[in-house]
């Protein structure tokens, strides 16, 4: 007994063996019954398949054709033929919250959304019991397995890359079921409240450290600028009184206040000499 998955090609090869002599006798009797009861029996033979559906017809337990039938009208024989309709529209399925343990030993709850569609109705019917339930369970398992290899920082920052990894893993696993996974989205990530407080404290400490570094850098630049200004003022003795007067003008423009302007004593001495000489 082989453990390899049974694909559509293997199913087709099995169907080529035929239904046997007894099977053909039953099919002939069924066809004869349709002819005898025509046109009443035509209503039991004609089935309608919608545009977004395909019908997989079984004749005496074997799939009738390599390809599903539809859309439109299809003919089935009573008593010997049965059929199963498969919806080909895109299915949006919510992944329930999964309790995971990240690589750095942080517990988190993660849920998501998976979108998929059936591209092969024959494979979806013949290779899996319930294709929708199997796809959902596989999506849950893949979500836990992939997120378990990521750290919390990678989980929070790299949602898009992780979603693409989950999608590729799901798509390769569901190919034998005739399912194509269109998109996987990580919807929400919940972490314990204690971890949220610790992360907030860590972020606040990082911001304070950065602010102190920026302030120290500003003080260093200001000190260099003041050093250069003092060198310029020392080269010209008249520059300092002019800067002083400019500062007083700026203060007077901002605030309506009385400014006491001190005059140097040597100025009074020179004025006294001028008055005495005069």
Automatic annotation (TrEMBL):
Q: Which InterPro entries match?
A: Band-7_stomatin-like, Band_7, Band_7/SPFH_dom_sf, Stomatin_HflK_fam
Query: What are the TM regions of this chain, as residue ranges?
Result: 18-46
Its localization reads:
Membrane
Q: What is its main location?
A: membrane
GO cellular component: a single term: plasma membrane
The record's family statement is: Belongs to the band 7/mec-2 family.
Q: Report what the protein is called.
A: Stomatin like 3
